[in-house]
Amino acid sequence: MKTNYFRTKRKIVLVSLIISLGLVFSVFVQTGDMETITGYVIGSPVFEDAESTAPNLEDIRAASCPTFWNKLYLLELNGMSITKTSSTSESIDLLESGVVDVFISGRALLPDDPELLKKIIGPGFSFISDQGMIVPLESFNKHQFYTDQNKDEVIGNFSGITDDNLKGVEDVYGYLDYGIVITSLENTDYSRSEVVHVVDRDGSRYRYSRTPTLYYTDEVGDEKIEYIAGILEE
User: What top-level class would CATH report for the domain 61-122+212-232?
Assistant: First the structure.
């Protein structure tokens, strides 16, 4: 029985190899270009060079607040001009005045900000309370938190937050005066709450206290926005 099994297995492998070689030869006959075959995956279509379908981004100008300055180099590598701003408010001013076409920010828009299109490009949270404040990350163990997000994910991203000082709730806006609320950017309403700035030891905004978001206007076009988001997405 074993002898027949291995003979059958060898036949299957041989047939598969012949089919694969035939497919590769077929690609060569159709294209006459060996370079095309280098992008060929056996059993799959030939993949075109990504650069041939990439939109031209040289006319797109981008800005970012300090939290996401490190993402700007990715856009610069793709031909975009970049501007480092000191705040989201400055980025909005540049967008409104036509100096930039898109910008990266980590917070939701304020009530007085203009209406802009947005696309979330990475994980993160939004910290709010009944009053604006700056909270060092290292002091988290002294605060009480309330969240409508996944508790395990919150605890995993913030040292100082544990089951002891984090309570899961449904309507976080009913707990603004009891402590610090952790919610999503989509659920953040600054007409009902204030920004809580979470800072690291060096004074910078702690990454996961913000949600990286690409803001833009209609003029950029969906194709370019999707491509830019793909470059930036975490």
Answer: alpha beta
